[in-house]
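Incident log, structure service

09:12 report received: a user says their structure output differs between two submissions of the same chain.
09:20 pulled the input from the user's history:
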Amino acid sequence: MSLHPSLQSYADAWTHSVEAISELVTPLAEGEWSRATPCPGWSVRDIVSHVIGVDCEMLGDPRPIHTLPRDLYHVQTEAQRYTEVQVDVRRHHTAPEMASELEYTIIRRSRQLRNESRDPETIVRGPRAVEETLEFALRRRAFDIWAHEQDLRWALGKPGNLDSPGAHVTRDMLLAVLSKIVAKDAGAPPNSAVVFDVHGPVEFLRTVRVDAEGRGTIDGAPSLGPAVTLALDWETYVRLSCGRVTPEAVADRVKIEGDQDLASAILHALVITH
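09:34 re-ran on a clean worker, output below:
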């Protein structure tokens, strides 16, 4: 047996992004590992530590026994505390130590994925010890690692891979929650429609329609009289969705037509991860 066909695209996306991360960071000088990234509170080293830590957990390695400092301003929740342990435990590792541990983790995780024979619906312990299906765990992993590849590219001034396999997994994950964001989180009124026109390396046109009961659905057909139309580029859409920028910071990159208050509520509600 080998990897189930429905899982292969997620494994490929993970491989593409993690190898890109390795290529980005391996040549870095010691000081460059401390460069700040758009991910709140995290340096280049911290993001690589997070990548290593999550994949080690997916490999089944025991978590480090480590007490976090009390002065980490960006750690506010229990979930963030859980995630930060794998990061903080590596904060004093040297550049060569980081690069070699990343390389070793990639080798081990790649071997595990090649030998993965379980059904996609198998329940596994994903990151943060949450039980979920194997398929969802791999899909979320592909999304997470691509988002962090983009964090590193932004920090290092080396843009790229905005249309890679991980980008398409990310698009699908963001679209899967868009109707809830518009209808529930942003409170779009019943019997309204909101159009998203995203252009760039990954592009799509989607309409979220809110019915009389306030339930949202999404489709690819245009709306004749939308309450709001939001037009923006793919990179800005991703950075808003990942909490890397505020709507105010990228106002010049978002074209709004229609109800300005509703548009603002939607843009603020787009954040699904930090």
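09:41 both user submissions now match this output. Likely a transient worker issue. Closing.
09:42 reviewer note: The mean pLDDT is 95. The two ends are 36 Å apart (CA to CA).
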